[in-house]
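Protocol step 4 of 6: structure prediction from sequence.
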Amino acid sequence: MLGQDRPVKPLAVALASAVIMSGAVLAGCSGDDSPSEPSTSAPTSATASSSPSAAATRPQPPRDRACYRLDYTEAVAPTVDAAPVSCERPHTSMTYAVGQLDTVVDGHLLAVDSARVRTQVAATCPERFAAFVGGTTEDRRLSMLRPVWFTPTVDESDAGASWFRCDAVALAADEELAPLTGRLQGVLGREDGRNRYAMCGTAAPGTPTFERVICSADHSWRAVATVPFDGDRYPGVEKVRTAGDGPCKDAGADAANGELDYKWGYEWPTAKQWAAGQHYGLCWAPD
């Protein structure tokens, strides 16, 4: 599964609604909802009827700090069977945490694919991701690095496996992973690391040719700041739309390095994206 900084459902870097500003003149533009990350069908809580067979060979947990060559589909799946590769070789995923699932509730053994077990992992891996890659909350939101997590298959769980695995991946573009290079631990606490995995755009946000890409790819705009919102309830379109006017104008001016003629863009979260855990907007500037 793939997530952001809130333990809700998987979500990409997409925000759909946008405006582009140049000075005080508004050129309004609003695109269709960008596709969310594909998610597996919602799990249903279940109670296992028996303990794993004592005769079964307990599968070994994955190794922390292992590297893998996953594609996007594998990265967003709840389970994965890819073998690790040397971290000196090309790879797209690195394990930053391995832990034990809490599958016993009130004396009952929960199935590994139950909603309660999956929610546990969806809360833990983003928290550990923040500590692993470092940087501020804004640094992480402006990057293309994302946490993903995996649990054993039902068969592995029946054989006694009770681990979870948290990996870090980088999005190259929509539904595409980028290679991981250099030291990943603490990467967003370093300027070169923030630049390496920064979020950019192929065109002005909200325009037909706009696509979010990692900044090492060809691009013409860069995400330069975020506009965070408080509370759990969606504030409404008007509030989230206007909240970025001041912050994003200031961020655009900073990115323009004193130029009086500059452009800036703002994307705000839709109600659907808010429900998926994205409680912030993005400020953009030409790059």
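Step 5 (inspection) to follow. The two ends are 32 Å apart (CA to CA).
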